[in-house]
Write a structure and sequence with these properties.
The chain is an alpha/beta fold. The chain folds into two domains: 184 residues, Rossmann fold, CATH 3.40.50; 115 residues, Orthogonal Bundle (Arc Repressor Mutant, subunit A). The strands form four sheets. A seven-stranded mixed beta sheet has the order 7-4-3-8-9-13-12, sandwiched between helices. The protein has a two-stranded antiparallel sheet with strand order 1-2. The longest helix is centred in the C-terminal third of the chain and has 20 residues.
Length: 364
């Protein structure tokens, strides 16, 4: 902030009082900026239960870019399938500018996903996304679980993409032709995908940086008190050594190997050999920092992966058991019930019943 035009001092009752009028100086566009002839226009498609934080973290950097640059670099329009207001997963409702059928003159369309993304799939949405994808001057992008909608429309085949970490396993299972990563965001040709949450901010700052330079991005980051702009290959989840509050490279390496070998689990002896410590040392590390033995931790990892597949895909219980390293469905069911208190078959039935109740409620 700069203060200008200080007025003359006035002597009142033995004190000097400075009268001045503050002027907020607008920062001129960066000298090294690649200026555009007109504002770049982004479109945001809001689907039911979209993630508000992912959406707002994508829009706010555009607003701040215009403010800090002192001119309109970006403008944006909001769309829904039918042009009617759409409710976010937090219950807030936003009125769109138009229906997606009227999305014209945009350079990027961001599909904003969120909770219960599979329920938002329709043939109409597929047709619309495919039609927009044929425009040579429009890129398709996705925030949070919006990647699922693009993948189901066949618009991510052969592309590298990302999605929120909870949905990575199911996206890989449902769409093997899509190259799914756990990056924060990914730019691959005419597709942009983002894991959601605050990663939308990092993704949008990358877009702004590519077009208008690092100086503008630095100013935006300072306004948002963003200490560090994360790169695309930053991890979505907090690294284990940070979660533990201590630096345990051997333990971190062991858990990383477990997470990478879900379908074909490796033995504890193999694990300790890969990490470079004895089995007994590995067991002590797990007991001290994770309060369980390595085999139990590994089993829980596989069961949690199985639960995501159970709730997010239509794969059979047998297929899920095999995908998570269990030799038989009965063994998988017993382990699942021991951890979650309910057999996997009942878990799925409960989910289906809830979905049916919600559908009936909407019909009424």
């Amino acid at each position: 902030m700069q203060w200008q035009d200080l007025a003359t001092s006035i002597f009142v009752a033995g004190y000097f009082v400075i009268e001045f009028e503050p002027h907020f100086t607008t920062i001129n566009p960066m000298s090294d900026e690649k200026t555009a002839t007109k504002p770049e226009h982004f479109g945001f498609l809001l689907v039911p239960n979209y993630s508000m934080i992912a959406f707002s973290c994508a829009v706010e950097p555009l607003r701040m870019a215009n403010r800090d640059a002192g001119k309109e670099l970006y403008r944006w329009s909001l769309y829904t399938i039918d042009g009617l207001p759409e409710r976010a997963s937090n219950g807030l409702e936003i009125t769109p500018d138009a229906s997606i059928e009227n999305a014209d003159d945009i350079s990027i369309l961001f599909v904003c996903g969120g909770a219960d993304i599979k329920e938002n799939w329709t043939k109409q949405l597929q047709f619309t996304l495919r039609r927009i994808s044929k425009r040579s001057n429009v890129k398709l992008a996705a925030l949070c679980t919006g990647s699922y909608l693009l993948a189901r429309a066949g618009l991510l085949d052969g592309y590298k993409c990302t999605i929120h970490w909870e949905n990575i396993a199911s996206l890989r299972e449902d769409f093997p032709e899509v190259l799914v990563s756990d990056d924060l965001f990914i730019f691959d040709r005419d597709r942009i995908t983002c894991a959601g949450g605050q990663a939308s901010l990092d993704m949008m700052l990358k877009l702004i940086n590519d077009r208008h330079g690092n100086k503008l991005v630095t100013l935006i980051s300072e306004q948002f008190m963003c200490e560090r702009v994360r790169s695309s290959d930053d991890r979505q989840r907090i690294p284990l050594h940070l979660a533990l509050g201590s630096n345990q490279p051997k333990l971190t390496e062991a858990v990383t190997l477990m997470e990478a070998n879900i379908e074909e689990p490796i033995s504890l002896d193999e694990l300790s050999s890969y990490v470079g410590i004895s089995r007994r040392q590995l067991e002590r590390l797990f007991q001290k920092h994770l309060n369980c033995v390595p085999t139990r931790y590994y089993l829980n990892l596989r069961l949690n992966r199985a639960r995501l597949l159970l709730l997010q895909t239509s794969k059979s219980i047998v297929d899920i058991a095999l995908a998570c390293g269990f030799i038989s469905a009965p063994h998988f069911s017993k382990c699942y019930r021991d951890l979650f208190g309910i057999p996997p078959r009942d878990e799925r039935r409960k989910l289906q019943a809830r979905a049916a109740d919600e559908e009936a409620g909407l019909a009424n």
